[in-house]
Amino acid sequence: MNRRTLVLGVAAVAVAGFGGATYFVTGNTKSEAVAAVAEDTPLIRPYSPIFGPADAPVTIVEFFDPACEACRAFHPIVKQIMEAFPGKVRVVLRYAAFHPPSAKAITILETARLQNLFEPVLEALFAAQPRWAPHGRDPASAWDVAAKAGLNVGRARDDAKTPDIVAVLNQDAADVTTVGVSQTPTFFVNGKPLTDFGAQQLFDLVESEVEATRDIPRD
Q: Would residue 75 count as lying in a domain?
């Protein structure tokens, strides 16, 4: 099974039933690619969660909402794309709180990061999303989901009030506006927006960026 078939197979299962995008640490020169994904910009902040090698030549920036069904559907697709290009791709996650329970879930994820539990808590929140994320539901049960993933909830609730975590939420909200993100998931690959949304389109853009950087010398 080739990489393209693998991603398409996952996509067919993952996005079935979702009508659209209300969506886990380049064909340019190396200097242009680096500039496009430099840290401490509206696309990437130094605190942003990153999956994959820090020096990977291709960077996917994903603005996601943990309460978004399409984000949940695309989560395994993004992981499959990383696996299709070993060592070549890193994923930077940015928050976009577009649903009522999202701010609480994002706060939980940030407290989980302080306990080195970001990935297991993210996986748990996505797996249990139908129980805690519907519109109008009290999001308190998201804490229970995180606790089952190993989060020390007492410590996390205290951490949630700290200025650093509040600053992360505020900065990501500001960057969502600056970048012009209006739906989730929204993807950028080496700074290029995914203008034609879809799993295959994301794979193709990543593949083109991997091929473009293949012959560029690494520092």
A: yes
Q: Read off the pTM.
A: 0.82
9-56 pLDDT per residue, tens: 544 444 433 333 333 332 333 334 444 456 678 999 999 999 999 999
For 52-111, what is each residue's pLDDT tens digit?
Answer: 999 999 999 999 999 999 999 999 999 999 999 999 999 999 999 998 889 999 999 999
Specify the 3-state DSSP secondary structure of 150: coil
Give CA torsion, residues 73, 77, 82, 83, to 10 deg. Answer: 120
Q: Give the neighbor-by-neighbor strand order of the sheet with 192-193.
A: 50-51, 89-95, 58-64, 186-189, 192-193
Q: What is the CATH number of the domain that holds 134?
A: 3.40.30.10
Q: What is the largest CA-CA distance in the chain?
A: 52
CB 14 within 8 A of CB 74: yes
Q: Which amino acid makes up residue 113?
A: R
Residue 157 within any structural domain of the chain: yes
- The answer to whether position 219 is within a domain reads no
Length of the chain: 219
Q: What one-character DSSP code corresponds to residue 24?
A: -
Is 113 domain-assigned? yes
> Domain of 209?
3-213
